[in-house]
Every structure is written in C-alpha cells, then in structure tokens.
Amino acid sequence: MTSIDTTAVELSPATARPNLLGMSQGQLEEFFVSIGEKRFRAAQVLKWIHQAGVIDFAQMTNISKELRGKLAEVAQVTLPAVQREWDSADGCRKFLLRVEGGSAVESVFIPDGDRGTLCVSSQVGCSLDCSFCATGKQGFQRDLTAAEIIAQVWLAARSLGQFDGERKRRVTNVVLMGMGEPLLNFDNVVTAMNIMMDDNAYGISKRRVTLSTSGVVPALDRLNEFTDACLAISLHAPNDELRNKLVPINKKYPIAQLLASAKRYIDNVPDNHRKITVEYTLIDGVNDRPEHARELAVLLKDIPVKINLIPFNPFSLSDYKRVKPHVMKEFQDILIKRGYTTTIRTTRGDDIAAACGQLAGEVNDRTRRSQRYLQKHSQAGQKQSADSDVESASSSGTDLSSNTDLSSNHSNSGQVFARSSG
Ligand code: SF4
C-alpha cells in the first residue's frame, strides 16, 4: 500500500461567487444568460472543466479575453482539497477529500480490465445507520453539494492522468455507493449524475452510472422524471423482520413498497432490457442461510433483477463477521438454480479500507451517533476487560477491589475511526 499526502492541492475559499464546477449544462446556460452572455458558452466551459481538466478561466483560450476576465470576477471553479490518496496492492486508489465544515469524505477508484469504476460519496456521513455499515456509525453532518460530488470524478480523472490523454486507467463507470444515501440528497445527486453523463462533460453512458439506494421510496418514485441511469437497491434481507434490523429505513418503507417502486422505475426507463441490481451483503450467521436464499428467490420472482452478493467487510465497532466462502457459494448456487444471474463481488481495496461498506471519511457528526457508538464500544471493551480480569484474578487469587485500570480501553476510543482515513 502506498500513501501520498497531497494536502491542500486545491482549497475551497468561502465566497459568494457561484462555483461553476457543479452546474449542469442547463444551469450553466442560465448562468451565462444571467450575466448577459450567450448560452453556447455553457458547452465551452463544460468541456474546459470536465474534459480538459482546466479550472483557471485564464486558460480557456477559445473564450474572449474580456469574458475570461469577467468570469474571474463573477464566478469560480473550486474543488475540495485532496487530503490524501492511497494505492492498494490490487490497484484500487482511495481519495480522502477535505470538504467545508471540517469533515472529509472518501471515494474509491476500482480498476478491472478495461473498466474503471469510481465509487462516489453523496453525503458527509449518513443518517440511516444500517447496522453493517461503517459510514452509518460515523453519524451525519450534511449533504454534499453537486460540486463536491462531481469533484470526486474530476479529481480521480486528474489523478489517473485522464485529462492528459491517459487511456489505460480512466473512469468509465460511476456508482453512487460511497458515503451517504443518494436519494436523501436528491437535487445535488441528480445534477452531478447529469454532468457525468453529459457528452460535453464526461460522457459516461447511462448504463454505466448506477445509483444505489437503501429504499427512500418517495424519492425513488420521482427519480424517473430526472434521470434514466441504472438502479441498485441495497436489500440485504429477504423479509421485513430481518431487514428492519439491518436497514432501519425498512420500518418506514418496507420491502414490498421498495420493490414496487424500483419496478416502476425500471419499467419507465426507455431501455427496457435493463435489470435492477439487488445488493445483498452476506453476514455470517445473520442472513446467509439456505432458507434466506430460497426466500429471496421467491421474493424477487416477478422483478427483472441481477443479484450481487457482497461478503461483509469487517470494521471497528461492528461485531458482525465475514461470511464463510463455502456458505456464500451455496447461497449463490441456490439463486442460480432458480434462474437468477448472481455474482459475488470480489473484495477489493481491503488493505486501504476501501472495500464495500468500509468508507468512513471523517465526519463532523451532528447527530452524536458516532459518540454513542464509541461509548457503547468502549463500555463493551471495559466489560470484556473486567470479565477477563475476573477470570484471571479468580485463577490467581487477586483482589479486584484495588483494580483502578479497568478504563484503559477508553484511551483508544478516539482511534477507532482512524483506520479508514489513516
Ligand atoms: S449502507 Fe448506505 S444508507 Fe445504510 S448507513 Fe451505510 S451509507 Fe447509509
């Protein structure tokens, strides 16, 4: 694993000038009209920023000098600072981006042959607290802006040499599966996705941009009006009883509502050959039994899906364990026998904590959830320590009443999240 410290590559000065980075072509056209300029300038600026990687107006040479000067006065193109990049042994690259408000978010580039998938974050932390997810344990601070979302693509493209014509390693696919629930940041996510797919920007096919949701049904019901990108749903359980525990938003929008909404989405996309990707994280002894696989097969029988099985990736603060390989294979075989295309997601970037469910960044938590988890974890650690002290004391005959060091785990608590960012 290599680590490159690129602190303060770009800073984001707080200023009232609009940041053109996060504007779609339509929004840029409105902006140019609002400053008395022609609409076609929008396509020019979009190409400079997202295809050439140029963010300094002075270098946008097919724009008149006068307009370049005007743009420098009334607008800006700014990006979050890349605080750090890590390269994993298997070719993944993780980025830690410092955003306004004192937090940091993560994105990961995952190469696979000709394909280069960027996993992008949509929020600082997440308010939904799925029980198997490292981001959820971090609490929540705020939504990312459209500029901060698309900046993750821009910064990865620059890091990979894409703007210099490097063709070997480039972002060909984007999945909104990083930190946050994309549908809780609807407008900014939709704007950023439209920039990803715009031919004057990154030109990524709608078949290669995937939004993944844990099931915010009212927002999913609106999604067709704004995009026809691919859809993935984080299911993780074949029934409401189990899913209520793993994905708490299920209590509000149960499985039947989620699947009906997802089906409406896919029925309404112009290209009707597409399938919904169902993500199912397999957790040892929790949702990995053959009866769960059989129940899942019945649940999905009327919906065009492909199933992606993801082995749970352990992280601090979680007591869940990784599924055993032969159990995962058996689960997959049951689904395949029942006619489902079922793949197992290879764990990538494990050595840099970039695997699925491990992204955590550094969240300036408004919900105090991270603090509660740390406390709970610390108390569990103290109890464990006390229990083992009792055991060893009773075997050695020591008097525990004088033991004042039972809180020693406490001093490590603040380090728990450091694994993913350091
Ligand atoms: S799995 Fe997704 S929705 Fe659930 S807590 Fe993690 S980031 Fe949020």
Task: Offer a concise description of the structure.
By secondary structure, this protein is α/β, with parallel strands linked by helices.
Mean pLDDT: 85
**Molecular shape:** globular
- The fold-level CATH name of the largest domain is TIM Barrel
Please outline the major beta sheet. 11 strands, mixed
**Tally of contiguous helical segments:** 13
Side by side, the strands of the main sheet go: 1-2-3-4-5-8-9-10-11-12-13
Q: How big a fraction of the residues is strand?
A: 15-25%
How many separate domains? 2
| CATH superfamily heading of the largest domain | Aldolase class I
Instruction: Give helix % range.
Output: 25-40%
Low-confidence stretches: 1-14, 387-422
Q: Distance between the terminal alpha carbons, to the nearest Å?
A: 12 Å
Order of helices and strands: EHHHEEEEEHEHEHEHEHHEHEHEHH
- Structure summary, number of beta strands: 13
CATH architecture term of the largest domain: Alpha-Beta Barrel
Radius of gyration: 23 Å
The structure class reads alpha/beta
Ligand inventory reads: iron/sulfur cluster
CATH class of the largest domain: Alpha Beta
